[in-house]
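Run log, item B.
One chain of 136 residues. Sequence copied directly from the ordering sheet:
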Amino acid sequence: MAKRASGKAEPPELSRLELAIMDVVWQLGDCSSAEVIAEFTKRRRLAETTIRTVLANLRKKGYLEPIPTIERGFRLRARVTRDAVAGRTLRGLVANLFGGSPRQAIAHLLQDERLDDAELKEIRRLLDEKRGRKGK
């Protein structure tokens, strides 16, 4: 496990499938594996045993923790926030695809024709806020 600045170990990177299953867990909040399976299979067809294996791997990696209940089995809770994973993943993409240059990554995103005026306005507001000025 990689070390954070705080000295705590970061969990290993997520695979695409692990990330997709974590997305379901983040959406559901505290949930059972059966609830994760039911929701995930609405999005993508995958064997229940495969989903249960991925959930077990996510527990081993430190992304999920069991919550004791009076129910049969246990419930699951995310130990890592979506924002933490998004930030770490984005930093990795910037480092690996854009030579560590946030400017190049942002320029690439701005070239995307799918950005509408409202999104561009929000990006401008965020840039102004980052710069320490009030948005126009």
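Observations after the first pass:
- Residues 4 and 55 are 24 Å apart (CA to CA).
- Residues 16-78 form a domain with the Arc Repressor Mutant, subunit A fold (CATH 1.10.10.10).
Flagged for discussion on Thursday.
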